[in-house]
Amino acid sequence: MILQPVYWKFIAMPELPEVETVARTLYPHVHNCLIQNVEVLRPASVHPLSLPMQSLCGCKIANVRRRAKLLIFDLDSEQSSKKEFGIPNYLIAHLRMTGRIFTQAANTEQGKHTRCRFMLTKLNGEPIQLFFDDVRAFGQLLAATPQILEQWQFWQNLGPEPLEIDQAVLASRLGSRRQLKTCLMDQKVLAGIGNIYADEALFQAGIDPAREACSLDKKETGRLLKSIKDVLNRSISQCGSSIRDYRDADGNVGAFQNSFAVYGRGGKICKKCGHILHKIRIGGRATVFCPVCQK
DNA sequence: TCCTCCCTGTTC
DNA sequence: GAACAGGGAGGA
């Protein structure tokens, strides 16, 4: 079944599992679509290193995939009509907090928070639109060549994908004395984990988020990696079902909240031991943990 | 290594 | 009408 745009356009706070889901569900809608025109409604939503968005005109979307929290459209640029701008190989979107990318009918008007819209045509000539909406306007689009990616420090510094590493790699990434949770959210250490999944993985592993990253022994590192992968994989698989559930929910757009053990549950009862969950700040971010279960 | 800022809708 | 949500840049 192909998910309709209305279901996945409401995903909030996109971390690795959410961006993965957007990539998978967007693919069938935009694969082989030709970019006919681009309208930038908020210039600051285009990354400073980006080629002009107009350079995307004439490019065909060959694939949609994820790296870290980035959504990447691989482009086939053979028919690019705006060669004077340079020819991009990728359109990359960082959704940050509230960014959303979704298709709409060709005659749909832009929304209040639409930052950029793309007019596309499918292989059969049918026109559709691709919207980039972003309430808090933190998200950015980047039309990039491989040369631009070489200059993009954030891209160059991205750590490994957490779903693809083994225990030895994780141990080597956690060598610093910084607080463990800060390290997990650092995209240079691991790519794709944000506040939600850091808290959830640390709870599942039973490890205190404020510990020094380098203080974990072998057993704890193994447990942490298992928990990270489990939380991410469960979310990726639940994501589909949660999104489908959304159809029946009455305006409640927070599809994943129901399965969180700690995130957003400060002051509530720990589902494992019944103790009150503590809420503190680590690295400037709200952090919820169980002082009994997490040592 | 840690803090502040960006941005706006929601909650208190 | 203030506090809060937070990823990452940039400065202390």
Oligomer: single chain
Shape category? elongated
Q: Give the biggest beta sheet.
A: 4 strands, antiparallel
Helix content: 25-40%
Strand order of the largest sheet: 1-6-7-5
First and last CA, distance = 43 Å
Count of separate DSSP helical elements: 8
Quick one: how many beta strands?
10
Uncertain segments are 1-11, 240-254
Q: Please, what is the average pLDDT?
A: 87
What is the radius of gyration computed over CA atoms, rounded to a whole number of angstroms?
20 Å
Taken as a percent bin, the fraction of beta residues is 15-25%
Describe this structure in words.
The radius of gyration is 20 Å and the shape is elongated. Strands 1-6-7-5 form a 4-stranded antiparallel sheet. Helices cover 28% and strands 22% of the residues. Residues 1-11 and 240-254 have low confidence and may be disordered. A hairpin with a 2-residue loop joins strand 2 and strand 3. The chain is α+β, with helices and mostly antiparallel strands and 295 residues long. The chain starts with a helix and ends in a 6-residue tail after the last strand. The structure holds a DNA duplex (12 and 12 nucleotides).
